[in-house]
Amino acid sequence: MGERVWALIGAVGLASPLVVASGLEADAAGMGTHTQLGMPPCGWIVAYGRPCPTCGMTTAFTHAAHGEFVSAATAQPGGLLLAVLAAAGFWVCLHTAVTGSRAVWVTLRAVTPWRAGWMVAALGAAWAYKWWTYRSA
User: Fold this and answer.
1) pTM higher than 0.85, yes or no?
2) Which of 54, 62, 120, 133 could be cross-linked to 21 through a Cys-Cys bond (beta carbons 3.0 to 4.6 Å apart)?
3) Contact (Cβ atoms closer than 8 angstroms) between residue 103 and residue 96
């Protein structure tokens, strides 16, 4: 398959969670929005009484999709970070798909192990934030 087709597939894949999130209503508790998709409550909270690493991600994506960035950061800072990266990646992929530019490949080359490590650390810090701010119902 050509590079433009792969870029278009990437654009669709990156836009999909934001499109789905735009049709949801963010849960006021800062997590639990995913249950609107027919998913069960977080298994970690049920089993251990503490949030999992992805608790609040759907809520953060939903807030971000509605332009509510402060609320997204409050719900799950890592979710806001991923939502912003997904939106930016969508535009880079769409630009590549439409114009044939090398923007996707230049962007992917910028993802070094060092930068990926910082991303993992940021997501870990976001989980720690969620753990610290969690209030059981």
Assistant:
1) yes
2) 62
3) yes
